[in-house]
Design brief:
The structure is a single chain. The chain is mainly beta. It has one domain: Beta-grasp domain (Ubiquitin-like (UB roll)), CATH 3.10.20.30. It is built from 1 helix and 5 strands. Strands 2-1-5-3-4 form a 5-stranded mixed beta sheet, with no helix packed on it. The mean pLDDT is 93.
Length: 66
């Protein structure tokens, strides 16, 4: 399945949910925020949000600075 990830068309790597997508890309759950089709998701929602062909996903990394 092809999705838009941070503005680029990519293969979902067999992921069926947002949670699985995070695992496939080996991302730290504590350092990212996710938008699914323009809606921000809470971490506890990731396992329930299914992916579909053409979905738009944004991974937003959280960084701290001074």
């Amino acid at each position: 399945m092809t999705i838009s990830l941070n503005g680029e068309g990519v293969d979902a790597r067999g992921a069926q949910t947002i949670e699985e997508l995070v695992e496939r890309y080996q991302l730290s759950r504590q350092t990212i925020l996710i938008e699914h089709n323009g809606h921000a998701l809470h971490r506890q929602e990731w396992p329930q949000h299914s992916l579909a062909e053409g979905d738009c996903i944004e991974f937003i990394r959280v960084v701290a600075g001074g």
